[in-house]
From TrEMBL:
Zn(2+) binds at residues 303, 307, 386. GO terms for cellular component: endoplasmic reticulum membrane. Proteolytically removes the C-terminal three residues of farnesylated proteins. It catalyses: Hydrolyzes the peptide bond -P2-(S-farnesyl or geranylgeranyl)C-P1'-P2'-P3'-COOH where P1' and P2' are amino acids with aliphatic side chains and P3' is any C-terminal residue. One of its GO terms (molecular function) is metal ion binding. This is CAAX prenyl protease. The active site is at residues 304, 390. The lineage of its organism: Eukaryota, Fungi, Dikarya, Basidiomycota, Agaricomycotina.
Length: 464
């Protein structure tokens, strides 16, 4: 532990200039954030002409009816226009909030509020919790019309919206309530560790973050998810038999198998698993069950279990922890940097002893361009994992053994058909610009996956 703290101290000495240099940090954040927004707009403009194509890629020509492909292209165009306008609007809003000192004003508002409740400025954590609540409300209200438009106009136009106005409003209220119940105590504990551990907070905060993630894995399906969706045991039948048999053959620690009422809000479909290493739960959207054959849903789950088999969630979590460690390791220099807060219009008395939350928030803003680059790297890792999970589904008969895997030799073909069905039903875009995909997509395109599945099939036939 001492070695770790010694290395972190070396890093802080190299960053010590941050605490005294009169840098125009706000100007840099404005430039960084606009650069990222303009780059994302450029990617949308690269992608947009592809929505004018009148035929799908040759590999998909037999899977898309002309009218369905036309609907897919129209849906993609509308989403691209919405993303372009909403992205620029959000950036203009964020830029205005920075320019006019909203963060400093909100911190002052939080201080005034707790003073009326009998708390003095020494109660920094209390003020930070109120500051976060006010900031969330003030920043979310201007973007609410975009959420309404996306749900009740864009998604409604293309036949996906199932959300009623009542459900929409209740979802927002539930989100605020859960943020207060869970987010408030989490933020308080997060900030308390900073105060308690001093500049040696990194290992303690890392331990806290990992523990919190483990707790959320347990309480999310049992406490949080029911606030929004109903989880019901999957009915007995062919699909349940197939999935339980698959889990048994792979020694997957299946505890519960659920069907979720995703159709309550949208016609889009999905499936996923979650849980602790010794207790896993599989959740299948009712829309997926309705739109796909049992053998296709089984293939989708075979792909998902491939992620478990190769420890992909654990590996992604490890990468995310390394990412968090790098952020926390560099943060102390910015935690003790009055010029940083002064650059964002905070008064001298606040900047003299920077509140932890404010310093951390501003520090994260400075990381905007780096986070964009890291996002591309994370997408590349995720796509590699998707290839491996597809290959797992194709090779599942060999993995579980010939006797146990009887009848699974065509799992790759079934997966390919399931992917096509999902793309057709979801009107997913099939013409994708490579740079747009690299930046935005955590999964390979449908054309790429089908081509790879065909290659895996040919290789298997050759081996046989």
């Amino acid at each position: 532990m001492e070695f770790l703290h010694a290395q972190l101290a070396v890093l802080q000495r190299k960053l010590s200039w941050v605490s005294v240099a009169p840098v125009n940090w706000k100007g840099y954040v404005q430039a960084f954030s606009w650069t990222v927004t303009l780059f994302e707009s450029y990617l949308l403009l690269r992608q947009y002409p592809l929505y004018s194509k009148t035929e799908p890629p040759a590999a998909l020509a037999g899977h898309f009816k002309p009218e369905v492909f036309a609907k897919s292209q129209a849906y993609g165009r509308d989403k691209a226009r919405f993303s372009l306008v909403s992205g620029i609007f959000k950036q203009c809003l964020d830029s205005a909030l920075l320019h006019y000192g909203l963060y400093a004003w909100t911190w002052s508002l939080a201080g005034t509020t707790i003073a009326k409740l009998g708390y003095t400025p020494e109660y920094e954590i209390t003020q930070s919790v109120f500051f976060t609540g006010f900031l969330v409300l003030l920043s979310s209200i201007p973007t609410l019309p975009f959420s309404i438009y996306q749900t009740f106009v864009l998604e409604e136009k293309h036949g996906f919206n199932k959300t009623t106005p009542k459900t929409f409003v209740l979802d927002i209220l539930k989100s605020y309530l859960l943020s207060a119940i869970i987010g408030g105590p989490f933020l308080a504990a997060f900030l308390y560790i900073f105060k308690w551990a001093g500049d040696r907070f990194v290992p303690w905060l890392m331990g806290f973050m990992i523990s919190f993630q483990m707790i959320m894995v347990v309480i999310y399906p049992t406490i949080i998810q029911p606030f929004f969706n109903k989880l019901s045991p999957l009915s007995a039948g062919d699909l349940r038999t197939r999935i339980e048999g698959l889990a048994t053959k792979l020694k997957f620690p299946l505890t519960h198998l659920y069907e979720i009422d995703g159709s309550k809000r949208s016609s889009h479909s999905n499936a996923y698993f979650f849980g602790l290493p010794w207790s896993k739960h599989i959740v299948i959207f009712d829309t997926l069950i309705k739109e796909s054959k049992p053998e296709e849903v089984e293939a989708v789950l075979a792909h998902e279990l491939g992620h478990w088999y190769y420890l992909h969630p654990t590996k992604l979590m490890a990468v995310s922890q390394l990412h968090m460690f790098a952020i926390l390791a560099a943060f102390p220099a910015f935690l003790h940097a009055p010029p940083l807060l002064r650059s964002f219009d905070f008064p001298k008395e606040v900047a003299a002893q920077p509140p932890t939350l404010i310093a951390f928030l501003l520090f994260q803003m400075l990381l905007t361009p780096f986070e964009a680059v890291i996002g591309i790297g994370m997408n590349a890792i995720s796509r590699r994992f998707e290839w491996q999970a597809d290959q797992f589904a194709c090779d599942i008969q060999e993995i579980v053994g010939e006797s146990e895997g009887k009848g699974m030799g065509d799992m790759g073909e079934r997966l390919g058909q399931a992917l096509v069905t999902l793309h057709v039903k979801n009107l997913s875009t099939v013409w994708v610009d490579w740079l747009y995909s690299a930046y935005h997509h955590s999964h390979p395109t449908l054309t790429e996956r089908l081509k790879a599945l065909e290659g895996l099939k040919a290789r298997r036939i050759k081996r046989e």
